[in-house]
Amino acid sequence: MGLGDLRRTYDGTPLEEATLDPDPLVQLARWVAEAHAALDGPTEVNAMALATADAGGRPAVRMVLLKDLDARGLTFFTNLGSRKAVELAANPQAALCLHWAPLYRQVRVVGPCAQVPREESAAYFATRPAGSRRSAWASRQSAPAPDRAALEDAMAEVARRYPDDDAIPLPDHWGGYRVVPDEVELWQGRPDRMHDRVRYRRGPDGWVRERLQP
Ligand SMILES: Cc1cc2nc3c(=O)[nH]c(=O)nc-3n(C[C@H](O)[C@H](O)[C@H](O)COP(=O)(O)O)c2cc1C
Predict the structure, then answer these.
(1) Contact 25, 71 (CB under 8 A)
(2) Which residue in the list 58, 148, 160, 193 is annotated as catalytic?
(3) What sequence ranges are listed for the domain Pyridoxine 5'-phosphate oxidase dimerisation C-terminal (predicted)?
(4) Which of 39, 62, 113 has the most ligand 1 atoms within 8 A of CB, as the residue to mutate?
(5) Residue 84: Cβ within 10 Å count
(6) d(CA 30, CA 32)
(7) Cα–Cα–Cα angle for 92, 138, 129, rounded to 5 degrees
(8) Contact at 8 Å (CB) between 41 and 100?
(9) SS3 69
(10) Which sequence spans correspond to the domains of the chain?
(11) What span, in angstroms and rounded, lies between the C-alpha atoms of 55 and 47?
């Protein structure tokens, strides 16, 4: 079957303004919780696409994991020398997209993005499995690698340097970023492609909400 023939009906629960929280971050937290409750198995409900652009405006997008969500914004963790980090240093704006296919839901977020305080990254780093903490040391994320063996060697070297699982420090080159939304759009798929879209924008007096055409 060709891609053009793939067609599904999106039959989600209607998005009604009256039931939406006036604060989009509260509403987003509600949707994440609903996705978490409804979708088990291999679906990563906290996976999101992160778009950045370099100083010249050339965009790049990749998946990251949403690791914290509160009134301050959406937090992910990464290598501070990676391509995304270099782009965020040049152009500290990001866009995020979360998608829960079985719920026919999408959320788009746009806003400035800055590193979280070091203590916050350290607190999260400490919760990661030892292997992930060691690979944060071993990998110069986004730089070319000669081959897989070089990466395995780097991992083995880190294991020699930090043999104790409880004593792997936070690398200087690793930490979190928080996207502070000034625009959030909730999308709910509906039959006949007449989808529900509600966009929140941060105004001088708080969030302003409007329905968009599908
Ligand atoms: C589901 C999923 C989750 C991911 N989560 C993260 C993450 O939280 N942090 C991260 O640095 N990379 C994560 N990655 C890898 C990134 O997509 C990407 O390959 C990496 O961060 C390098 O991107 P960059 O070269 O544009 O900086 C994830 C990939 C997938 C498929």
Answers:
(1) yes
(2) 193
(3) 174-214
(4) 62
(5) 24
(6) 5
(7) 85
(8) no
(9) strand
(10) 8-126+172-212, 129-169
(11) 26
Report the separation in Å between the CA atom of 28 and the middle of ligand 1, taken as the mean of its atom positions: 22
8-126+172-212: what fold? Pnp Oxidase; Chain A (2.30.110)
For residue 91, what are its two tokens?
A: 């152009």
Q: Which amino acid is at 167?
A: A
Can you say which residues are annotated as belonging to the binding site for FMN? Answer: 62-67, 77-78, 83-84, 106, 141-142, 187, 197
Cite the annotated binding site by residue number: 62-67, 77-78, 83-84, 106, 124, 128, 132, 141-142, 187, 193-195, 197
Decide if 193 is catalytic. yes
In the chain, DSSP finds a helix count (H) and a strand count (E) of: 5, 10
